[in-house]
Specification:
The chain is built from five helices and 16 strands. It is about 25% helix and about 30% strand. It has helices at about 30-40, 60-65, 110-120, 140-150, 165-190; strands spanning about 5-10, 20, 25-30, 50-55, 75-85, 100-105, 130-135, 150-160, 205-210, 215, 225-230, 235, 245-250, 255, 270, 275-280. A hairpin with a 2-residue loop joins strand 2 (about 20) and strand 3 (about 25-30). It folds into two domains: about 5-190, Aminopeptidase; about 205-280, Ribbon (left handed beta-beta-3-solenoid), CATH 2.10.270.10. The protein is of the alpha/beta class and about 280 residues long.
């Protein structure tokens, strides 16, 4: 059965969303969300999916608030596109990105699709915003989808009032669209296999991108926000799924993770009472 995916472009219908003017150029969120959704929708030719783009003359938030929104239950995944904004914009090119992130409902636990998207976009040379994934119960469309039992993600593509973010995005928007689409297709396993053309599987194991090291399990999932034993050694991963190093506090206790580089990088080290390194800690 095809995966039914609804793409929503944020704002519109009289609501421009976040806006900024930088170097004499006007940026309006609702125009950027529609452009990216249209680029995204064209990237699923190799997917076993049924793609629907929500009416771009409408604002889905306003429609849901009025009780005239789309039937979310008709879809398996709802993907809403937005661009973020700061309290105080950054209209100077300082070589620093603010980055890309997601909002998901607080009741959601499966985040492998969104993690793939983040890693794909970061691998293009962009930056992850904070932890990358933020949880909320204060977004209307998100709550409607959650009550309907449908997976929902709100993408904050870049900061529309950060000149570094938008300059990079405008130069790479097509690659970003493809990276997002690839994350969705591979995350859900809906990429069509072309007959007669062997498909190279993504190898499980340690992976590295510009943010750091992460671990791909054989089932396509990522350890995150806790410990995982790999190859007889314990490793600690942050909320976004990246391996932590150095001195880390967990549940009121301090642990030292080998800072590398080398084969021991990230592995949990045993310490004596004085904090001196001793042996690898290898207890269940």
């Amino acid at each position: 059965m095809k995966k039914r995916i609804l793409f929503i472009a944020g704002h519109g219908q009289g609501d421009p969303g976040a806006c900024s003017t930088m170097n004499g150029v006007s940026y309006q969120e609702y125009l950027y969300t529609r452009e990216l959704v249209n680029l995204l929708a064209g990237c699923f030719g190799q997917a076993d999916a049924e793609i629907t783009v929500y009416d771009q003359a409408k604002n889905c938030y306003k429609q849901n608030k009025a009780g005239t929104g789309p039937d979310f239950k008709a879809y398996d995944y709802i993907f809403e596109v937005h661009f973020n904004a700061k309290v105080h914009g950054d209209g100077m090119m300082d070589g620093k990105f603010t980055g890309i992130g997601f909002y998901l409902h607080t009741g959601i636990h499966g985040v492998s699709v969104e993690q793939r998207i983040l890693k794909n976009v970061v691998s293009l040379g962009f930056k992850q915003w904070g932890d990358g994934i933020f949880y909320t119960s204060g977004l209307l469309n998100c709550n409607v989808a959650y009550r309907a039992g449908v997976d929902y993600a709100l993408l904050e593509t870049a900061f529309i009032d950060d000149l570094d973010d938008m300059s990079w995005y405008n130069a790479h928007k097509r690659e970003v669209a493809q990276a997002v689409a690839d994350g969705i297709m591979d995350g859900f396993g809906i990429r069509k296999v072309q007959e007669g053309i062997p498909q190279a599987p993504t190898a499980s194991g340690w992976q590295r991108d510009e943010t750091g090291w992460w671990y791909l399990d054989q089932d396509g999932k990522y350890p995150r926000n806790g410990w995982k034993k790999i190859g007889g050694r314990w490793y600690l991963f942050d909320r976004a799924g990246y391996m932590l190093k150095g001195l880390q506090a967990v549940d009121g206790k301090l642990y030292y993770l080998h800072e590398g580089p080398g084969a021991d990088e990230g592995a949990l080290m045993g310490t004596d009472e004085d904090g001196a390194l001793t042996v690898f800690w290898d207890e269940e």
